[in-house]
């Protein structure tokens, strides 16, 4: 639970309003230094979570029975050679390796074609992004990026990677590839084309159920990584009430800051918990795919793709966990009273407990769905209203 201000603007109110969206994506929850505060407001020390969310945890996996072409994708030294070998294949596993190689290398190849240097790319998670300020995090980033770039650098030779990828996906889907079908499945507009959207919902529910029943790590990973929609059947009114209670604690601690929230943030109030649940379920599906054999080992391209999804933040070392006594001491030294420091700590602990409880509930929901073959409670193909 790194405290980084959430990157959602200068207002602590906006950061807290989007809490449900970002709490399980990047372990940032409580803003440590709200820039909208007055000059009298103290800067607060950061708190590191003891148990990061599964979506942000990359664990090594044991060797699996994945097809040879897929294993080659995870560990090939030159992904462009692998891509050329398999791009015109008629085997779904080989086509999977080809389009995932493209997924892994597309941004790097594009940046190199645009004239970016490999050194600049090595130091930044984005072609034009900044280097990390923390030395340990920057060193870890550069180690990962160096391997990633080395495996991808020859994609500088590939033109129109988007069209090439779409063609491979369509051919793989026609051959029956579940991962390809899941990545290609895009819903019609729910309001403009309600009948087509209802038809898509029914088809998507069947497709996702097939993927879950298949126990195929590549298909389950596609559920977590692709555009599939889930709105799990949870007590969202209760989740919202709990969040509002935590926000009230912080509003009492920093009176007046909530009034500075942009008006545009208000419509999100009703959907924050559902977005957070979607993201939490994504993390549970990542766990499930890994248990089934998806390779997130330290040198796997699966790991690099997972890291790249969040600009590597979910794979970089974070601050050491802060003990309560150390936090309270530092908070008081920064200007908070003992009561205020304790209130801040309690709000953080309440958020951490809420995250863990949500993860546990969703794990249990997925386990039950797999056991009885009924997936309705997962909210497949549902929209956030």
Describe this structure in words.
The protein has helices at residues 12-17, 19-22, 68-75, 79-86, 92-113, 118-123, 135-152, 161-174, 178-184, 194-214, 217-225, 236-253, 272-292, 301-309, 324-333, 338-372. Residues 1-63 and 258-267 have low confidence and may be disordered. It has 16 helices and no strands. The chain is globular and about 65 Å long. Among the domains are: 76-127 and 135-158, no CATH class; 231-254 and 270-317, no CATH class; 321-384, no CATH class. The protein is mainly alpha-helical and 385 residues long.
User: How large a portion of the residues is in β-strands, by DSSP E?
Assistant: under 5%
Structural class: mainly alpha
Rg (CA only) = 22 Å
Residue stretches low in confidence (pLDDT < 50, at least 5 long) are: 1-63, 258-267
Give a count of the beta strands, DSSP E runs of length 2 or more.
0
Order of helices and strands: HHHHHHHHHHHHHHHH
The residue-averaged pLDDT reads 79
Cα end-to-end separation: 29 Å
- Global morphology: globular
Bin the helical content. Answer: 55-70%
Question: Helical stretch count?
Answer: 16
How is the main sheet built? none
Features:
single chain, 385 residues, mainly alpha, disordered N terminus
List the helices and strands and how they pair.
Layout: H1 12-17, H2 19-22, H3 68-75, H4 79-86, H5 92-113, H6 118-123, H7 135-152, H8 161-174, H9 178-184, H10 194-214, H11 217-225, H12 236-253, H13 272-292, H14 301-309, H15 324-333, H16 338-372
């Amino acid at each position: 639970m790194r405290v980084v201000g959430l990157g959602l603007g200068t207002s602590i109110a906006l950061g807290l309003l989007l809490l449900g969206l970002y709490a399980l994506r990047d372990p940032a929850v409580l803003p440590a230094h709200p820039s909208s505060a007055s000059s009298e407001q103290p800067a607060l020390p950061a708190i590191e979570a003891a148990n990061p969310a599964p979506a942000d945890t990359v664990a090594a996996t044991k060797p699996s029975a994945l097809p040879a072409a897929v294993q080659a994708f995870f560990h090939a030294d030159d992904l462009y050679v692998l891509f050329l070998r398999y791009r015109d294949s008629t085997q779904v596993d080989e086509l999977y390796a080809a389009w995932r190689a493209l997924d892994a290398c597309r941004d790097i190849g594009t940046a190199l074609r645009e004239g970016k240097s490999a050194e600049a790319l090595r130091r930044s998670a984005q072609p034009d992004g900044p280097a990390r300020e923390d030395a340990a995090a920057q060193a870890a980033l550069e180690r990962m990026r160096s391997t990633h770039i080395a495996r991808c650098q020859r994609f500088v030779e590939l033109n129109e990677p988007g069209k090439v990828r779409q063609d491979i996906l369509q051919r793989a889907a026609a051959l029956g590839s579940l991962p390809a079908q899941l990545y290609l499945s895009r819903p019609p507009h729910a309001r403009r084309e309600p009948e087509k959207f209802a038809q898509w919902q029914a088809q998507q529910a069947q497709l996702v159920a097939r993927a879950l029943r298949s126990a195929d790590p590549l298909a389950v990973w596609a559920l977590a990584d692709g555009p599939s929609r889930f709105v799990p059947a949870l007590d969202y009114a209760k989740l919202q009430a709990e969040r509002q209670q935590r926000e009230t604690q912080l509003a009492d601690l920093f009176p007046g800051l909530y009034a500075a929230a942009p008006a545009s943030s208000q419509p999100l109030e009703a959907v924050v918990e559902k977005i957070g649940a979607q993201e939490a379920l994504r993390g549970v599906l990542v766990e499930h795919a890994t248990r089934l054999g998806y390779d997130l080992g330290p040198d796997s391209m699966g790991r690099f793709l997972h890291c790249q999804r969040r600009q590597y933040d979910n794979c970089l070392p974070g601050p050491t966990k802060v003990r309560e006594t150390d936090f309270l001491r530092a908070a008081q030294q920064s200007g908070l009273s003992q009561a205020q420091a304790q209130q801040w700590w309690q709000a953080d602990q309440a958020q951490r407990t809420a995250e863990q409880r949500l993860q546990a509930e969703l794990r249990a929901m997925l386990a039950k769905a797999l056991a009885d073959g009924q997936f309705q409670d997962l909210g497949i193909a549902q929209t956030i209203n």
